[in-house]
């Protein structure tokens, strides 16, 4: 079955199931215990009928360098509900509407760090933020609503870098393998991380990074991070066997006509609001030759990433 056919089949099933599972989720702002004694802020999205099960799959969402809040304003709200950046909020809402619990983690406010860190990171994406993902997992596992072996991790840009560290088969910047029970997340997907020397795990050309579980990356062809990320993924596949069926497959999809933050730009191009996730009709329209635009890159990446999680968590 082709990738297109497989994605459509999986997502059509998800859409049918999701319609029966839940009504739209507006999200709720919460706090939970973070690493090193800090308190982390977050927004959690739950299916309307969350009380009917104690084994929901879940996904932790990790924001990029501009934070997770709309206009990078901590606590931003709209209509009395948390207002996150469009790409994060649309994922949170859609996941809750289709049978997941989703939690978007603010790595900045609890540390007293600025909400915009795109010039120079104050919060370390490689050492501090992976611990935030783990703290979010612990919070979810303690709710009594989540299946702890069906939790995924999704990150963007700086948050994607944190997700790569957490997904690694080895200890950070070490060739020593982590214990199997140290790996909390069943599957990890990322959008446009930086994969250069600052990430450690060796240089891209000598990288020993590879995932413990299945891993998916989406990247724009015009992104300056593309070459290093492609090199690391190919080494994971060629040197460490992270290929299809291995249980720790590493894939990268590179979208022509797309740059960094293509899913944010794509939503702007289409005039999508915070509640809108790409539709199946949009996915089909963007699956023909010549659809090399940032909006189509966003649509295709969102849908194939959702299919990736559905295959492994549902």
Automatic annotation (TrEMBL):
GO terms for molecular function: carboxylic ester hydrolase activity. Pfam families: DLH. Keywords: Hydrolase, Signal. Residues 1-22 form the signal peptide. Residues 41-268 form the Dienelactone hydrolase domain. It comes from the Bacteria. This is Dienelactone hydrolase family protein.
């Amino acid at each position: 079955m082709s990738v297109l056919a497989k994605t459509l089949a999986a997502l059509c099933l998800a859409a049918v199931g999701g319609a029966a599972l839940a009504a739209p989720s507006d999200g709720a702002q919460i706090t939970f215990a973070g690493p090193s004694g800090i308190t982390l802020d977050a927004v959690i999205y739950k299916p309307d009928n969350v009380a009917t099960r104690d084994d929901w799959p879940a996904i932790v969402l990790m924001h990029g360098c501009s934070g997770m809040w709309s206009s990078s304003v901590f606590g931003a709200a709209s209509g009395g509900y948390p207002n996150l950046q469009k790409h994060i909020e649309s994922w949170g809402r859609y996941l809750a509407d289709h049978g997941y619990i989703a939690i978007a983690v603010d790595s900045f406010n609890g540390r007293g760090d600025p909400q915009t860190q795109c010039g120079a990171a104050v919060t370390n994406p490689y050492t501090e933020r992976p611990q935030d993902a783990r703290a979010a997992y612990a919070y979810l596992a303690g709710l009594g609503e989540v299946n702890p072996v069906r939790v995924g991790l999704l990150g963007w840009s700086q948050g994607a870098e944190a997700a790569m560290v957490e997904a690694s088969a080895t200890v950070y910047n070490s060739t020593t393998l982590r214990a199997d029970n140290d790996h909390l997340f069943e599957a990890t997907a990322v959008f446009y991380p930086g994969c250069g020397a600052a990430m450690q795990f060796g240089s891209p050309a000598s990288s020993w990074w590879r995932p413990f579980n299945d891993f998916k990356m989406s990247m724009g062809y015009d992104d300056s991070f593309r070459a290093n990320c492609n090199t690391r993924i190919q080494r994971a596949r060629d040197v460490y066997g992270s290929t299809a069926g291995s249980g720790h497959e590493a894939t990268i999809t590179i979208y022509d006509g797309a740059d960094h933050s293509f899913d944010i730009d794509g939503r702007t191009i289409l005039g999508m609001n915070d509640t809108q996730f790409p539709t199946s009709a949009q996915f089909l329209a963007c699956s023909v030759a010549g659809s090399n635009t940032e909006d189509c890159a966003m649509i295709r990446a969102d849908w194939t990433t959702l299919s990736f999680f559905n295959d492994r968590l549902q």
